[in-house]
Amino acid sequence: SLTMNIATYVTPITMDTKRYLIGVYKNTKTYENLYRNTKNNYFLLQILSLDNLPVVKTLGKKSAVTYNKEKYLTKHGLLEEQTCVWKNKKYHYLKHVHSVLFMNIEKRIDIGDHDVLLAKVEKVVLTNFSSTELTTKDLQNRQIVG
User: Fold this and answer.
1) How far, in Å, are 33, 108, 120, 131 from residue 43 at the CA level?
2) DSSP code per residue over 54-109
3) CA 20 to CA 107: how far, in whole Å?
4) How many distinct structural domains can be found in the chain?
5) Which is the most buried residue in 39, 40, 52, 71, by most CB within 10 A?
6) Alpha-carbon 50 to chain mean position
7) Cα(21)–Cα(115) distance, rounded to whole angstroms?
8) What confidence score (pLDDT) does residue 35 get?
9) Checking DSSP bridges between strand 114-127 and strand 19-25, what pairing results, if any?
10) What pLDDT is recorded for position 102?
């Protein structure tokens, strides 16, 4: 089933933004999904825009273990009707995102309560240059994260 989670710390680390560092907290559904199948190092990364701000609390503060995010997103019409396909699998993504990227995990670094993933962009599905990218500072200014 569909799961969408918030990674608060996502940083491009190369000039051409082909590689990112992503912080993933342990004991979360996100962590479980990324580690469930160690042969599958691919995932979809959505870079949110300011237009996505209203869904951040629901996606980031509610656990996919106990809350059906797919039902919430569908009920509120927040998913794009079209899907993107990668490695013979269909992926849904949010409306109004800044960009949609297929990522390949190159390295996992255990740093205590979370891991840092080094991931390479394999394919850019969508980039909406007219949108403003949502940043950690935006979340801090709205007291969503500390």
Assistant:
1) 9, 14, 10, 23
2) HHHHHHHHS-TTTS-HHHHHHHTT-B-SS-EEETTEEE--BTT-SEEEEEEEEEEE
3) 11
4) 1
5) 52
6) 15
7) 10
8) 79
9) antiparallel
10) 93
103 inside domain? yes
**Tokens (6 digits) for 57:** 């609390």
Tokens encoding 14:
């190369």
Q: Which helix (H) or strand (E) holds 52?
A: none
Question: In the beta sheet, which residues pair with residue 43?
Answer: 103
Residue type at 11 in one-letter notation: T
What's the pLDDT score for residue 132?
Answer: 93
pLDDT of residue 22: 94
Domain of 91 in residue numbering reads as: 10-136
Q: State the pLDDT at residue 37.
A: 62
- The pLDDT score that the predictor gives to residue 1 is 57
Q: For residue 1, is it within any domain?
A: no
* Residue 69's CATH number: 2.30.110.10
Please check whether residue 103 is in contact with residue 36, taking contact to mean a CB–CB distance below 8 angstroms: no
Mean pLDDT of each 10-residue bin along the chain, 146 residues long? 77 92 89 74 91 92 87 94 84 92 94 94 90 92 88
Task: Please indicate, yes or no, if residue 141 is contained in any of the structural domains.
Answer: no
